[in-house]
């Protein structure tokens, strides 16, 4: 499978694949409960495939209700000692985990690319460095909780049930597990059914780091495994990242219980480009905003709001830039656009894009050859989109950008905020005062100015409205795991 | 090969009608976000260029070198040696392409012409009181005419950075126009000394100023100051020539100079050319490297690709 790019001809980049041999994937994996890999009580298994080739990578034990109960009990047993450890002792484990992740980062990057379909360039340069950074960051908090602003000696909640999505499998695991362990909780985590492998490798890292048994339990499975975990009466804290529909179901499920909940759900981020923006960098930011991880990012800048006076110029530049994107083998170091994570997601994207066309929006993609096997979708741009179009309102979670226009800053703010979601936004202007004025009026949890999709463990992340509640990352991220 | 149309013919003629129109135009160019620009340059630097692509890039890079000696200690002997190397960079391998040019001071042009006679190698000469450019216009023009009379195919001039930083854009413009005229048929490379212009906004303005005045090439640096060519400032100048052609139909070349020493660096620059201005610039008529030590590293990498092993510095010529 060769990388394809419309522009390449004179200077055709030869394939530069990262070696697959750095990672050793076993033919089957069990559940990780109480420090041991074990089969599911009912013996159920499922297969995980590589989305770029549809090759079966491994067979995974599928957690049922009995396994959830076993894992929660193990976490409960471990909680007493783990939460009683001095913070500085918990920090040692977290620092150790962070260092092991760094040491094994090449292996984990290749693994994540195989299981998820995203380009190695991203797992190598974004996912893995951020994963390690998250563990380092929260390791630093573990012995300083008295000074986190929650009063003296804040207490952990107990057992955290965590359900994570497939778009950043290991990074979402880090966002969940690092603050939970730093604050003295124990965890049961369910990775997504299409991307269980990096979480299982993380289980091995926990053993390598000598983490006490039961502190971290990993239960691969489908939605029903997650639902069983959320419903378990001995879970004290539920943390979920995923779709708004499931998030709402979880909120209903835990209503009336003592469980503390954080939800990080969908988004329809507005990337606002004013006429005094640094155009070339704005184009880069738009590309990063919607084509990073094939647009399968909850905080993607999936709505481009461009000032009418520069619309033509900006769209010309954007189309030219999209023509240089290289789509193909995710393990090739020169690949910019990888595979869509699953057939199911591909079909959802396809349906919404067809709806966009049917509703009259104008569809454009660079000429781009898609590989014959695997799940692929070409980078796509829609113009003539209005607020009334489905593709301007619904989260597509794919490499599809809807372009809308505005005339004044007030109109930009009104349109950006006119969404059921409120997770992210971007502001592009060379005028500092405009950045501050617009940012203060946007109802979004994360606002980037003159950049997009930049992440840092010190920065809180979370949403307004149907994008969820609670914050992950930074000092704010501690609150979700403390009894305060 | 596309020819360069006279500057006056393009659609931006009115921009240079007066000091105020020129200033308004240059200050109306989109700003440059430094963080974003450098991030883009760094990300293109992570492209992995291997095997056939590497072989292509190395030969292309060799063919784009302006092999340079600009020392007070230059002698006829040194310039002859440089010329011989430019014509036949690798004496052990005749398949190696020649460099684009040799670049010397005006008084060495005649010697350089003899040294490269009969080959494709051009002779470029720095002029206009290089590198500071602090001399009267008459002196600068005499410098240029000397070099051209001695046979220079290309003139590398420096702009008056003092005038530019003082906001006296028209003075810089007029000087480039005058030098262009004095250069006659020689192609004119306009050096901005980006390290002294300091901001990316200034580099974008200088690029457009140079192109409006008729530059055939815009060039980053003299190689004589602390900060010379960087991936980011070269990327920015490539955006400028790309946009200028889109607007006027006139293609202008780019020459990063100074500080590019390894094949790895040179290949990064070629990736930036390929993915910014596009393949029309992947030709030594439109892109050059101002360098001296770079050539030997390119030759060693070329030998490595051909033979499968590193030869070492004793297997390339020291001049």
UniProtKB/TrEMBL annotation, chain B:
CDD domains for this protein: DeoC
Protein name: Deoxyribose-phosphate aldolase
Classification via Pfam families: DeoC
An example molecular function term from Gene Ontology annotations: deoxyribose-phosphate aldolase activity
Organism superkingdom: Bacteria
Keywords tagged on the record: Lyase, Schiff base
Enzyme class: lyase
Pathway: Carbohydrate degradation; 2-deoxy-D-ribose 1-phosphate degradation; D-glyceraldehyde 3-phosphate and acetaldehyde from 2-deoxy-alpha-D-ribose 1-phosphate: step 2/2
Coiled-coil regions listed in the entry: none
Family named by the database record: Belongs to the DeoC/FbaB aldolase family. DeoC type 2 subfamily.
Catalysed reaction equations from the record: 2-deoxy-D-ribose 5-phosphate = D-glyceraldehyde 3-phosphate + acetaldehyde
EC number, UniProt record: 4.1.2.4
InterPro entries hit by this protein: Aldolase_TIM, DeoC, DeoC/FbaB/LacD_aldolase
């Amino acid at each position: 499978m060769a990388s394809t790019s419309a522009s390449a001809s004179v200077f055709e980049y030869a394939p530069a694949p990262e070696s697959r041999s750095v990672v050793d994937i076993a033919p089957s994996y069990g559940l990780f409960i109480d420090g041991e890999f074990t089969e599911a009580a009912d013996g159920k298994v499922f297969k995980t495939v590589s989305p770029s080739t549809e090759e079966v990578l491994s067979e995974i034990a599928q957690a049922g209700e009995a396994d959830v109960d076993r894992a929660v009990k193990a976490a409960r047993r471990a909680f007493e000692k783990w939460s009683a450890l001095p913070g500085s002792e918990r920090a040692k484990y977290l620092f150790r985990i962070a260092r092991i992740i760094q040491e094994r980062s090449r292996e984990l990057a290749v693994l994540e690319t195989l299981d998820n379909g995203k380009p190695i360039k991203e797992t190598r340069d974004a996912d893995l460095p951020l994963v390690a950074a998250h563990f380092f960051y929260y390791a630093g908090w573990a012995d300083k909780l008295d000074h986190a602003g929650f009063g003296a000696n804040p207490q952990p909640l107990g057992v955290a049930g965590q359900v994570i999505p497939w778009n950043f499998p290991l990074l979402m695991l880090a966002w969940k597990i690092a603050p939970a362990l730093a604050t003295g909780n124990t965890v049961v985590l369910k990775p997504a059914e299409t991307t269980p492998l990096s979480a299982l490798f993380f289980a091995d890292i926990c053993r390598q780091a000598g983490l006490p048994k039961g502190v971290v339990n990993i239960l691969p499975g489908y939605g029903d495994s997650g639902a069983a975990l959320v419903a378990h009466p001995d879970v004290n804290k539920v943390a979920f990242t995923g779709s708004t529909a499931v998030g709402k179901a979880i909120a209903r499920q835990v209503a009336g219980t003592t469980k503390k909940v954080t939800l990080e759900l969908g988004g329809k981020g507005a990337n606002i480009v004013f006429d005094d923006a640094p155009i070339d960098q704005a184009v880069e930011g738009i590309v990063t905003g919607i084509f990073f991880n094939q647009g399968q990012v909850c905080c993607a800048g999936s709505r481009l709001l461009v000032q009418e006076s520069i619309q033509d110029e900006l769209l010309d530049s954007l189309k030219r830039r999209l023509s240089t994107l290289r789509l193909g083998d995710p393990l090739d170091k020169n690949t910019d656009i990888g595979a869509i994570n699953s057939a199911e997601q591909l079909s959802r994207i396809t349906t919404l894009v067809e709806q966009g066309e049917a509703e009259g929006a104008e569809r454009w993609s660079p000429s781009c050859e898609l590989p014959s096997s695997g799940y692929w979708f070409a980078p796509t741009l829609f113009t003539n989109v209005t607020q009334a179009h489905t593709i301007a309102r619904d989260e597509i979670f794919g490499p599809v950008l809807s372009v809308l226009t505005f005339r004044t800053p007030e109109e930009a703010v009104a349109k950006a905020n006119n969404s059921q979601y409120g997770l992210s936004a971007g502001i592009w202007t060379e005028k500092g005062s405009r950045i501050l004025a617009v940012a203060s009026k946007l109802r979004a949890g994360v606002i980037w100015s003159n950049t997009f999709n930049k992440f840092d463990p010190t920065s809180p992340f979370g949403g307004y409205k149907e994008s969820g509640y609670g914050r992950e990352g930074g000092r704010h991220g501690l609150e979700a795991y403390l009894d305060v | 090969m596309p020819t360069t149309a006279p500057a006056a013919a393009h659609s931006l003629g009115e921009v240079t009608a007066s000091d105020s129109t020129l200033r308004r135009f240059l200050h109306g160019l989109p700003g440059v976000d430094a963080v974003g620009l450098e991030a883009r340059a760094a990300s293109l630097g992570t492209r992995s260029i291997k095997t056939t692509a590497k072989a292509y890039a190395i030969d292309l890079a060799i063919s784009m070198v302006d092999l340079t000696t600009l020392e007070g200690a230059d002698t006829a002997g040194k310039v002859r040696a440089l010329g011989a190397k430019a014509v036949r960079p690798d004496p052990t391998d005749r398949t190696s392409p020649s460099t684009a040019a040799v670049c010397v001071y005006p008084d060495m042009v005649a010697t350089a012409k003899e040294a490269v006679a009969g080959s494709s190698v051009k002779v470029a000469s720095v002029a206009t009181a290089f590198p500071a450019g602090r001399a009267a216009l008459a002196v600068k023009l005499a410098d240029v005419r000397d070099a051209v009379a001695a046979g220079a195919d290309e003139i590398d001039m420096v702009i008056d950075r003092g005038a530019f930083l003082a906001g006296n854009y028209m003075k810089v413009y007029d000087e480039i126009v005058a030098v262009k005229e004095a250069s006659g048929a020689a192609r004119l490379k306009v050096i901005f000394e980006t390290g002294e212009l300091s901001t990316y906004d200034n580099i974008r303005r200088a690029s457009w100023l140079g192109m409006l005045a008729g530059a055939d090439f815009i060039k980053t640096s003299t190689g004589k100051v602390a900060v010379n060519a960087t991936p980011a400032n070269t990327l920015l100048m490539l955006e400028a020539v790309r946009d200028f052609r889109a607007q006027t139909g006139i293609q202008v070349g780019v020459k990063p100079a100074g500080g590019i020493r390894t094949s790895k660096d040179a290949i990064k620059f070629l990736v930036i050319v390929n993915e910014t201005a596009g393949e029309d610039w992947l030709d030594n008529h439109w892109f050059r490297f101002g360098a001296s030590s770079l050539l030997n590293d390119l030759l060693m990498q070329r030998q490595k690709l051909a033979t499968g092993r590193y030869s070492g510095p004793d297997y390339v010529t020291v001049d």
